[in-house]
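Supplementary Methods, section 5.1.

A reviewer requested that the exact input to the structure prediction be made available. We therefore reproduce it here, unchanged from the version used in the analyses.
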Amino acid sequence: MSVKDENSANSEDLFLKIGLDVKTASQTISNHKLTSNLTTIIHEAGVSNGCDRTTGNLLYSVASRFPEAALVHRSAFIKYIISSKIKFPAQVDAAFDFLENIGSEDFNLSEFEEACGVGVEVSVEDIEKTVSEIFEENKITILEKRYRINEGKLLGDVRKKLPWADTRIVKKVIGEKMYELLGEKTAADNEKPPKEKEKKKKPVKVENKKTTMEAAPEPSEEEINPYSIFPKPEQNIRVHTEVSFSDSSVLRCSNTKELLDKHLKVTGGNVYTRFPPEPNGYLHIGHAKAMFVDFGLAKERGGCCYLRFDDTNPEAEKREYITHIEDIVNWMGWEPFKITYTSDYFQELYDLAVELIRRGHAYVDHQTGEEIKEYREKKINSPWRDRPIEESLKLFDEMKRGNIEEGKATLRMKQDMQNDNCNMYDLIAYRIKFTPHPHAGDKWCIYPSYDYAHCIVDSLENITHSLCTLEFETRRASYYWLLHSLGLYMPHVWEYSRLNITNTVMSKRKLNHIVTNNHVDGWDDPRLLTLAGLRRRGVTPTAINAFIRGIGITRSDGSMINMSRLEHHIREELNKTAPRTMVVLDPLKVVITNFETDKVIELDAKKWPDASSDDHSSLYKVPFSRVVYIEQDDFRMKYSSDYHRLALGKTVMLRYAFPIKCTHVVLADDNETVVEIHAKYDLEKKIKPKGVVHWVAEPAPGKEPLKVEIRLFDKLFNSENPAELENWLDDINTNSRVVVSNAFAVPTLKEAVLGDRFQFERKGYFAVDKDSTPEKLVFNRTVTLKDSYVKAGK
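The structure derived from this sequence is encoded token-by-token as follows.
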């Protein structure tokens, strides 16, 4: 049996001893936080050898529902349960309501006891008398409905008059009273009441024949303002979290009034957040969510957000990544309060590490990486864990001076190697690396770990809300343990769900692999959901932020967002901002035989479909001549009733121009491939065909239209969740990029520059690519026109 399985078995046995049923005990051990809470409470209550079921159930309520803001009062509340001063669920509910309002503040015991019925004894006689009164009030209904009456309502009526009565006794008395009044149950009492059939009402005729829409539900406060869930800085005196130790002790982490007052004096009571990326790769759309949370909260509350580079690993960090991150943050529309680096605080971090050793909370260790891993798995202390403080101080100084070889020593935090949380297994605070630092230079040869530096720099920068994704939730214990051990101010920590999107990978390791191994064309390949790739594809930051706001800031983890939802927001934005134009991707030549050979006329085409016809700024000019080009798939040899484009002998409308009728088809030598179409146009537009197609004409007789390159992108991976596949690289979609080298465009597109976005009518939204040259423009398809997200019903 593994250590994990053994722990689970021990926990389940403990929960069964306090009277939980097997199902509840089994479900509890699958929830790490609830297991830790309940285990701590059982030991704190002194009932690890068992207790009666009623007490056990009340303790379970404490573990699962006790107000987080009032955790400082939990120990006192447990004593009320063990002493049977609080013995009913109704009392527990009332106590929780009281404590939720009080939070971590001191309170009057008399008021608390009065609020939850401590010392109030409700006799059986009182219950019987009250039940008789309730029955008298409802006698007619009871006699009519007999045993089919809602007994829950009767129970509720009694509870209103006697809130601290024992519910089991109340139920028993109600049952006895029912029998006294009605006698034995009859066969009719056991029958289900017949459902009343509602008469079908004839639908009301609506004169305008429009479907009546149901009123949309009122949006929640969180939907209106996703930042409403976060507390105010001055509320940061409440217990943040509990750290349970293997010796059954509990650390309840909260700021002292002195620490909070000092913090508020520096910040002026404003919100301070930070966006802390590691400069070891390009940012992806998951980072866009982090920016929305960190910068967005600060902006909404009128506060400040740092852009802090978490640069504790000099081997993986590059100036290229730092420059990219600053650029992308700016492109996404966020303005940092300050740009800082964890390395800016290397001296303070070192000084605090020395202080941590002095306080007996850290030691220099000589175990290898493999030995550390093995000892953690077995929950065994390092042989150097209890070395003298002076010895660790001397060795740590030797590490700093470069007198110890790389890999021969680390500084570890003295936490709890027997803890249920592996992130309390004496995490490494410092390691030796003889590598120059991109920002700090060659001053240091020891570097702090993320687990050591992150929380301390949060505190040094007076961060009010330290926000991160849920995979860091189990590190919260270590975060608060370290700040508490050093007596530092503690930010409010909150975790939200990681952003997962279908048909892509979001792991930096996987992204780095497919980039460095040339599966894609760099970090800004438009098929990637890196922010550089999305920008190159033509996606706007407005669309990305609208998408993030739409999915919300929640803690529901594991959900996979379909790519179509992101595409929906991209379309909504580009529909408003991308002017229309015409490009033919797969040209088929059409000769208009009744149009003069040397004639070219200019027609008005619309950039914006909803603009009025007299708004000249919404129009652009397109040439119309004897030779035009349409899409190959806009023509068929044979016509069918469901086909409304061009066919032999049939008519179609050229958008913004004239109807044309196909009169002749020129075939290649294989007698199948269509090479050219001959048609006649209707100058007076007498015919009104159903079908409309886009087109591009020769700008001058015998001169080809403007040639452009079009790149069509599809999902990079075939599977919705390629990251879970063992051979995930085999899932790459080999058709995810198709290049159309010789598309034809209207002349006005020649003026397009990098950053311009367009809707190519009937084809989708496109953006100018950086590979464009004066000789040939290159366009990336951002997204198609078809919106599967809306059709699926959002």
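The first strand starts at residue 241 and ends at 244. These observations are discussed further in the main text.
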